[in-house]
Specification:
single chain, five-stranded mixed β-sheet, 65% helix, Conserved hypothetical protein from pyrococcus furiosus pfu- 392566-001, ParB domain, alpha/beta, 3 domains, globular, 15 helices
């Protein structure tokens, strides 16, 4: 049952389990300004407290707009079961894998729930739960803070830094130094990836320059190195452009496919056809890209 409550009555203890994203929050702010809050905030009611679990962006936007009363739905009076319920509908709510990991870590460390019990309640495998539990252990306090505060992208940690940590045995302290150096600089995913390769594979002088804040200098050096003398053939230039476009839209779709705001039947019908076509091309595409990556690396 949905009720109207004061935002000042909401307990925000789980806010650090949810990712902040300035771009999506700005879009949501405009939507709320035009249409109000459509979906109620969700939480659990315990000992007279409304403990918020879902709707932190909506609450922050309401505060910025001077809205003091918001719609709220209770998921019961048990925190652990409320988190379980939120995780069960995570596909609809667009919880990222790191948000899932943070909430599962709360269930394990705070509520003392064993992996087997969490898996049973979520109707997931123990491996599914363990993988997410392991993600949090891989992250230092510094990296966790930068990611969840929205100043360092999740994608860059998952697909750039983690491989360095797992394959190249880069230490957490070195990762912390890199993240502190580049976080909050409004860098693109491509620029972060480029800087990471230079930082972890390059010279100590390059690392010192990045730690000192010479980010633009570092990017200029790296781009000059990777561009070489610029004498690419027309075919080569076309392939490089296609790779750049592919990387950009893969990153965009990785985030967009998890968005829970899609509603129209026309969208679902067309999206299903297009995504089906992509799935049919995935295996030959991945095989070709892997081979191409190996061949260009050897060259």
């Amino acid at each position: 049952m949905t009720e109207q409550v004061e935002i000042s009555s909401l307990d925000l203890r789980y806010e650090n389990c949810r990712l902040k994203a300035a771009g999506s929050e700005k879009t949501l702010l405009v939507s709320i300004l035009q249409n109000g809050i459509r979906d109620p905030l969700q939480g659990v009611d315990r000992d007279g407290n409304r403990i918020l679990l879902d709707g932190f962006k909506r609450r922050r936007c309401a505060g910025k707009l001077g809205i003091n009363i918001v719609p709220y739905t209770s998921l019961g009076d048990d925190e652990a079961l409320g988190i379980i319920e939120l995780l069960r509908v995570s596909n609809a709510k667009s919880l990222s894998i790191l948000e899932q990991a943070r909430l599962i870590d709360e269930l394990k460390s705070v509520h003392r729930m064993p992996v087997a019990e969490i898996a049973r309640l979520l109707e997931k495998s123990k491996a599914w739960v363990s993988v997410r539990g392991g993600l949090i252990k891989e992250m230092s306090e510094t990296v966790t803070d930068k990611i969840f505060s929205g100043v360092f992208p999740v994608y860059s940690f998952m697909y750039t830094l983690r491989p360095f940590m797992r394959i190249n045995a880069v230490k957490k302290g070195d990762v912390d130094d890199f993240v502190r150096s580049v976080a909050g600089k409004d860098l693109s995913l491509r620029d972060i990836d480029l800087l990471a390769h230079g930082y972890f594979k390059g010279s100590e002088n390059f690392r010192e320059q990045i730690r000192s804040g010479n980010i633009l200098w570092g990017l200029k050096c790296l781009k000059k190195f990777y561009q070489g003398d610029g004498k690419c053939t027309e075919l080569e230039q076309g392939t490089l452009k296609a790779l750049e476009i592919m990387l950009k839209y893969m990153q965009k779709l990785t985030a967009g496919c998890r968005d829970g705001r899609y509603k129209t039947g026309a969208f679902y019908a067309q999206a299903n056809l297009l995504s089906g076509g992509i799935i049919r091309q995935l295996d030959p595409f991945v095989e070709a890209i892997r081979s191409f990556h190996d061949r260009t690396g050897q060259a």
